[in-house]
Write a structure and sequence with these properties.
Helix content: 25-40%
Organism: Kingdonia uniflora
Number of strands: 7
Number of helices: 8
Strand content: 15-25%
CATH topology: Rossmann fold
Distance between the termini: 43 Å
Protein name: Polysaccharide biosynthesis domain-containing protein
Membrane topology: Single-pass membrane protein
Strand order of the largest sheet: 3-2-1-4-5-7-6
CATH architecture: 3-Layer(aba) Sandwich
Subcellular location: Golgi apparatus membrane
CATH class: Alpha Beta
Radius of gyration: 17 Å
Main location: Golgi
Oligomer: single chain
Largest sheet: 7 strands, mixed
Shape: globular
Number of domains: 1
């Protein structure tokens, strides 16, 4: 009820369009009837965070945000949200170089890639909260960090790490990954490299929706040197 009141009395609208939101909403609804709900990881903390959390009432929804002051601002008004400050190690200006060179590091390749503690791979997000590494995520929304100026972190690491976590899944089912702002070069390039066109099941507006199977549950993702 508090979420309804919040949006009913606010002039601020979510960052995504209604059509884009509906894609993720439909997937969240599919597991809302289970006893545990969904494990939902969201890169980004915004005006839509209360909405995402309310769509997953029985599950665990965790938000990752690059701006510590913004985390404090949001949690002041919505203290029940699970939000963490994350410091990213990359800059958008490095995107082309990271794409050119990642195959030269074995621990960036599918056969050996992992996220937690993987300091050998520059694309692996090694500074995330422990909870992120401990859980297996049913849904991952990538709508951050910022990626529209050279010094911004860019979403290269988020896309790569989401792909690696999805491939490492041991729970039944696939990992649903939603990537926003695919009208931009870097998001599109890294999605095609790590999330794969063959796993793209829906494109609405600036949102792409992927279903990524785990390496344990299918031979389709068992390439040692290619994600796609």
């Amino acid at each position: 009820m508090k979420t309804i009141l919040h949006y009913a009395t606010s002039t601020v609208v979510p960052q995504q369009s209604r059509a884009e939101i509906s894609v993720s909403f439909d997937v969240l609804q599919s597991c809302s009837g289970t006893l545990s709900g969904c494990n939902f990881l969201v890169f980004g903390l915004g005006h839509d965070s209360l909405m995402w959390s309310s769509f997953n009432p029985l599950g665990t929804t965790v938000f990752l945000e690059e701006d510590p002051k913004w985390v404090q601002t949001v949690l002041k008004d919505a203290p029940n949200l699970k939000a963490h400050y994350v410091r990213y190690q990359t800059q958008l200006i490095q995107a082309d170089e990271l794409m050119r060179t990642y195959r030269s590091e074995p621990y960036c390749l599918p056969a050996k890639a992992y996220v937690k503690g993987n300091t050998k791979c520059k694309l692996a997000l090694t500074t995330l909260p422990e909870e992120v590494y401990e859980r297996q995520w049913d849904l991952i929304m990538i709508d951050a960090p910022r990626g529209y100026f050279n010094e911004a972190p860019g979403r290269m690491g988020a896309i790569f790490s989401a792909a690696v976590m999805a491939r490492a899944r041991t729970r039944p089912g696939v990992t649903h990954i939603f990537l926003h702002d695919v009208n931009r070069k870097v998001e599109k390039m890294f999605a095609m490299e790590f999330l794969c066109r063959k796993y793209l099941v829906k494109a609405v507006g600036r949102l792409w929706y992927f279903k990524i199977p785990s390496a344990a549950n299918t031979t389709d993702v068992n390439s040692d040197d290619r994600f796609c």
